[in-house]
């Protein structure tokens, strides 16, 4: 069972997210609150939280500050930012502060549930709508070239998967695009993480952009 915290200052949004999450057999909402301080207080009380859904703009303690506080803890939940804001600086600030995923509230229910399960399993998720923000920032500061990628010994299929990950596609979307099983794609992504020494899927996507694959 995945224990989820829902942190958003809009009560209607919290209620909607809780209804969606609690309807799933493998997900339960253990805490909800209107600012990041509520999440920190719950963790201090020992409330179980595997994944925290976190808005960015909130009173008292906003999302970026909450991420900063969580980063100082030895044990912290995975954090999935769910917000209306897709401005470049907010996306990059959230990722730099330690967010494991970034979704927009206008996204689909199925994508939210998939993202919760992905970050709970140690993965990372970027909504396709925010990938351009990452691309713009990385292209202003390139540090990896196509020649660097060629030295990694990637197979042609791994190269294809890396390119599609850089475009923001999920494993299922990559599988559909390449006519592979999701399990096979997951294996390729695992191999890519090892070969590129990337921490997570977000770093893989950044690598693809820096190398000019996207």
UniProtKB/TrEMBL annotation:
> What keywords appear on the UniProt entry?
DNA-binding, Phosphoprotein, Transcription, Transcription regulation
Instruction: Give every HTH luxR-type domain span.
Output: 147-212
Q: Which GO terms describe its molecular function?
A: DNA binding
Task: Tell me which Gene Ontology terms the entry assigns under biological process.
Answer: phosphorelay signal transduction system; regulation of DNA-templated transcription
- Give yes or no: UniProt keyword Flavoprotein: no
Sequence ranges assigned to domain Response regulatory in this UniProt record: 3-120
Residues bearing PTM 4-aspartylphosphate: 55
What is this protein's record name? Answer: LuxR family transcriptional regulator
Species in which this protein is naturally found: Aeromicrobium erythreum
